[in-house]
Write a structure and sequence with these properties.
This protein is of the alpha+beta class. It contains five helices and four strands, in the order αβαβαααββ. The strands form two sheets. A two-stranded parallel ribbon has the order 1-2. A two-stranded antiparallel ribbon has the order 3-4. Helix 3 crosses helix 4. The longest helix has 21 residues.
Length: 168
């Protein structure tokens, strides 16, 4: 049975193919993705108009062979550490900090003036980057109808919801 990581990886590759309309030429990953499901998918599908994709997997316990991805992991991990330390939010919120760091990494422009999102889709996505991780936020309490009582709830900003514009 394919693992959750395998299914998620195949979903991301399918989305990338659909968004760009171009074939993926090479797939490079850690050895943990060297599964029957991935290899079958990489073999191509003539009915779907997908060519075979060349696969390169690292040797076991040698993630240094996949340096580009490992470097990106280190960059995002450093952002997570800074976010957690500067916000005062406990380390039990590391997954929210990681998601927010990856969100900023994907949607904010780089030195070339283009974000990865824009490079793939060809359009810019407006990003509200003024909300730093861990800042104080307020939400309107729609259930409070007393005019003398505070109608807002105080909270801590820990990122955006994946599919909606809701602030967590």
């Amino acid at each position: 049975k394919p693992s959750e990581k395998t299914i998620e990886c195949l979903g991301h590759m399918s989305n990338l193919l659909n968004l760009t309309g171009r074939n993926i030429c090479k797939f490079r990953a850690d050895n943990e993705f060297n599964t029957v499901s991935i290899n079958k998918w990489l073999g191509g599908d003539a009915d779907a108009g997908r060519n075979a994709i060349e696969a390169e997997f690292t040797a076991p316990y040698s993630s240094f062979q996949n340096g580009g991805a490992e470097r990106l992991n280190g960059v995002i991990q450093q952002k997570v550490k800074v976010m957690l330390n500067s916000s005062g939010v406990g380390t039990n919120y590391w997954n929210f900090a990681f998601n927010h760091a990856a969100f900023l990494h994907n949607y904010l422009p780089r030195a070339g003036g283009c974000s990865p999102f824009e490079a793939i889709r060809g359009v810019t996505k407006p990003v509200k980057a003024e909300d730093p991780f861990g800042c104080r936020v307020f939400a309107k309490n729609f259930f409070e109808h007393n005019k003398l009582v505070n109608r807002s709830l105080s909270g801590t900003f820990i990122g955006y919801h994946k599919t909606t514009k809701v602030v967590l």
